[in-house]
Amino acid sequence: MLQALRKLVQQVNNAETLDEALRTIVEGVRAAVETDACSIWLRDGDSHQLTLMATEGLSRELEKKLVLDADQGLVGWVAEREEPINLSGAANHPRYHFVKALGEESFDAFLGAPIMHAGKVLGVIVVQHRSRKAFDEEDESIIITASAQLAGVLAYAEVVENEDLQRLGEPSKERIYKGLASASGIGVGRAVVLSSQKDFRSVPKRKVSDPDAELAAFNGALTELRTELEQLAVSLEEELNREEVALFDVYARMLDDQAIGGEIVRRIEAGYAAEYATARVFEGHVRVFTNMDDEYLRERSADVRDLGMRLLAHLAPSVSERKDLPERCVLVARSLVATHLGQIDHKRIAALVSLKGSSNSHVAILARAMGIPTVMGCEELQLKDLDGQELIIDGYRGHVILNAKPQIREHYNEVVAQAAQLTNELRALKNLPARTPDGKRLILMANTGLATDAIQAKEVGAEGAGLYRTEIPFILKERFPSEREQSRIYRQQLIAFAPQPVTMRTLDVGGDKPLNYFPIEEDNPFLGWRGIRISLDHPEIFLGQVRAMMSASEGLDNLKIMLPMIASMQEFDRAEQLIIRAHEEMLADGYDIKLPDIGVMIEVPAAVYLADRLAKRAAFLSVGSNDLIQYLLAVDRNNERVSNVYESYHPAVLNALQHVATAAAKEGKPVSLCGELASDPGAAVLLFAMGYRYLSLNSYALPRVKAVIRQLPFADMQEILALTADFDRASELRSFVASELIKRGVDPLLLSRVTD
After folding, report:
1. What is the pLDDT of residues 23-68, one digit of tens each?
2. Can you give the residue ranges of the GAF domain (predicted)?
3. Hey, is 45 helix, strand or coil?
4. Which stretches within 635-713 are classed as H helix?
């Protein structure tokens, strides 16, 4: 039975259309349960009517034609109760609804289970047989498993509004696929599927009589690949800084004799063909990376796979190279990697889509730096026949839309046009302050991490960097950067903003930001060894970084240092002592540097309740809203299963934010917030009214937030904040804030979603 279930799950995963998946399930479940009939009913949008979509054992002529009301029949009862119902003598039950043409009058036993996704009933799966005996527990287990599997297949239907269920199975109709929003923006273009010419496993095992000839072919392919990597690096030099382009040097070194290249040579010398030797060696390395527990290292498996496929392509070059590419390309691949960005002129790249990977992968980091809308982890997207089709990529929400209906295409074209017009209008605000009509001032700064971030921030009028993520240079390297290297990178940021301040967060790795050369293996990395905990356990790393920051600030004096993940006064005390020690050492070495302000990130609940004490000691407080919300609500924001629980307008979140602002004000210390919450104009209004006078946000959102602040009197903001105290539900509170802003004269276009 277990084997049959596994086979069924695999077949459903391989289905290319909804119709195929439904047919696979009804046939597979009917056989596994050894019953007379299996049927699937799906809900039709907001009407909650249930449509018979597939059946084995009942009349197939009624598929996609027979519709039951929400309260009709045993099927409606299952949907209503949202739990399995197992009956014998079903025809005698008060909820039984007889449909003559269906042919179910001879079936006495009934077992139905709801198809649930994200707390909603998408449909019902039913098995029936003629025996009066009810189905047993094993039968229940099978249809519950089938129900869960079908829920995953149907998940994308959640985002299709007013879509006729009868059309869902037709591949030519509009499809909306959900992935991870990894780089914001809207991209419209034709799909260019980047597929390797062959899979490692497809390369046949072959012995050769002339290993020397194979070695010559291999070395020739190796030379060509090295040249290709160099050209890719050159093509991206103007867009990326030296640390980011250095990634291609890492790829090249993997091919050295002391690394993968040497392993391939040894297999060739043992008498195997160059292609086979290459495929086997790379397949083994990909398997090792894929099976690693560390998320960052698993991401590197895509890089290793891409390198191997490129080498195979040079060993057996394709004769079908692309000649005519669309003017606007949406690059799509099973596993996008950084080298893909160099294959096409970046000005022609409308967007990126990867079936695998996360927003922490190298390609996502580079896409954000280049301003290319990107969706990662779009696992349900089918690559077959996708090439050349028009796609709309919504990088704000993580949606990929295939075969968009005319009205949807028109909507997104309008969004793009409106965004472009709004962007042009907002440029006029670049050199104007974020000041309310009644004279209250808000300082808007930028979140940065790459060299290009500072350029973008200055272009939109950012008044400094409220959060410089020092971990980004560490992530982009294959080793710890030296103190001198760090100092050079940090000085670029400090110079870019001088005399405006740059708040540098000390190394914040661990959790979802691992270093491949500094492995951290933990069952629960978000609650483990990360942030300041690592720095205090490795003072040599912390001291080196702090010295690099301070040496970079010499003659500029615009550096502030911020400590992440502080959860106790002991941690702050120890970190402060180390910073003072580093400063004294630098003074002894002849540097003329003042001690930077030392602040604390409030991002764990313990820090919220220590805010009054921390405010007495620290020069400033800064709320890290992304992590704080995650920890307050006990939800992994990268987990799609619970993403609906991650709610920044949750009353508990707003109460915590008010508590921190009050504690800072009591001690006369500045308080800021950095994170996605600051990019939401409505939330920015609430934060300003709470007492936050500094917000650090992404450069794309900054002009919108500034425009809203300039349109609304501060007194109105305080009124809106006071009215939110009566709300218990986050969704209602969010809607109320938006409606109040519009009612008081804020342009609705400024409130459209900027980040997820």
Report:
1. 888 998 898 888 999 999 998 765 678 999 999 999 888 888 888 8
2. 17-164
3. helix
4. 651-666, 681-690, 702-711
pLDDT value at 475 more than 50:
yes
Supply φ then ψ for residue 679, to 5 degrees: -85, -10
More confident residue, 717 or 117: 717
Q: What is the dihedral of CA 460, 465, 471, 475, to 10 degrees?
A: 20
What residue has token string 């050079």? 488
Cα separation, 145 vs 149, in Å, equals 6
The yes-or-no verdict on residue 389 having pLDDT over 60 is yes
Residue with tokens 């965004």: 419
Whole-angstrom distance, CA of residue 302 vs CA of residue 299 = 6
Residue 572 CA to residue 509 CA, distance in Å, equals 18
Confidence of residue 723 (pLDDT cuts 50, 70, 90): very high
Write the secondary structure of 415-474 as one string of H (helix), E (strand) and C (coil).
HHHHHHHHHHHHHHHCCCCEECCCCCEEEEEEEECCHHHHHHHHHCCCCCEEEEECHHHH
**Cα distance between residue 73 and residue 62, in whole Å:** 16
Catalytic-role residue among 362, 399, 583, 650: 362
Task: Provide the pLDDT confidence category of residue 495 given band limits of 50, 70 and 90.
Answer: very high
Q: Secondary structure of the chain: what % helix, strand, coil (to 5)?
A: 50, 15, 35
β-pair partners for 6: none
User: Would you call 303 helix, strand, or coil by DSSP?
Assistant: helix
pTM equals 0.60
Alpha-carbon distance of 151 to 426, in angstroms, equals: 43
Residue 358 has pLDDT above 80, yes or no: no
640 or 108: which carries more pLDDT confidence? 108
Domains of the chain, first to last: 2-167 (3.30.450.40), 175-195+325-420 (3.50.30.10), 200-315 (1.10.274.10), 432-720 (3.20.20.60)
Above 70 in pLDDT, residue 213? yes
**Exactly one of 38, 329, 378, 674 is catalytic; which is it?**
674
- One-letter amino acid identity for 436? T
- Do 181 and 393 meet the contact criterion of CB atoms below 8 Å apart? no
On average, the pLDDT of the chain sits at: 83
Structure token digits, residue 359: 């927003």
8 Å CB contact between 240 and 186: no
DSSP state of 4: H
Do the Cβ atoms of 725 and 475 come closer than 8 Å? no
d(CA 3, CA 548): 58
Residue 71: is its pLDDT beyond 50? Answer: yes
Residue 446 to residue 490: CA distance in whole angstroms? 15
Distance, CA of 70 to CA of 494 (rounded, Å): 62
Q: Catalytic: 362?
A: yes
Query: Quick check: is 329 catalytic?
Result: no
